[in-house]
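Question (not urgent): is this output format expected?
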Amino acid sequence: MSKITIAIVSVLKPVNDSRNFEKTGLSISQTNKYTVNIIGFWTKNIPEVKNINLHPLFNFNRTHPVRLWASWNIYKKLLQLKPEVIIATTHESLFVICLYKIIFGAKILYDIQENYYRNIRFTSTYPPLLRTFLAMYVRGKEKLCNRWIDHYSLAEQSYSRDLKFTTGKSTIIENKTTLEPHEKVEKIYSSRIQFTYTGTISDNYGIFDAIAFIDRMHQINSHVHFVIAGYCAKKSTWKKVLRKTKGKDYITIRGGDHLLSHNQIIKAIEAADFVLLPYQLDRSIIRCIPTKIYECITLKTPMIIRPNPLWLKLCNQFNASMPCDFKDEDEHFLRLILNRKYYTKGNVEVCSWENEKIKLLKVIERLTQ
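Got this back:
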């Protein structure tokens, strides 16, 4: 019996992206019913996995003009692969995927991993005059394509309230973690206290608040060390990070101007005494739960976290974090976080991808019947 062909499509996400490959792709391929093709950005060390074919079509800067032709390259690849189900994971490829469906009749699952309207409108990624126009354009595109989309998977609980056009044909499949739970290890802070910032390096994600926080902590205790492990897409932000960290031997940067693998990010979290989550609580993120929180809880790494009630509600189930404004913390605050007991309650398996995997496979099965 021939296997059903599925294509997972992205433009800027690497082909071995955590959600697209490690969660969605592997979960579907392990049933042995489907051949999974992942179309995305080029990356080093492309893995070889049974029932999964990786197609790294893109390798350009986010603002490079060649990005305008990305959708055409996706369409040509779809013509070659002839998928029966297409999982769109970004808004950019929606038009050509819907065109493919109109001509060839494939089913479409739109995996909404971000609320693009809010991310564009309420962050500083684009110039102020462009933000409203681009945000409205993207939302208009999503609504226009709605009639051809068979189902939506929503990465956040809040998206079911925010994205009314998905009502009646959506499933919440949260971005939880595939990591195995770790045993709790009691920390002894003798010669080194390691704070870590991982993931996207940006002003909106609080990198400069984190650096200022570490500067204060290091003045109080010279054993404080800071690891920044992630990628900065904006050149002006990266230059500012280099200026702010220059000459500080207690700060180590991994990545920065180049991507790190998800495995490298996880190793940085594992090695940390505390992970910093200094996200700015703007309207783009305040109702979302970063995957990093699920990962830290599963690895039992304590977090210093901006006091968002949604995040604290989750973290308080395990005594996993200490709220922090990243403004005026002093010696008392440092003593407080070092003396506090973490992960004294709760079952971290609630952060596991396994339950989300079951929901995903049910959606795929309905689409392929």
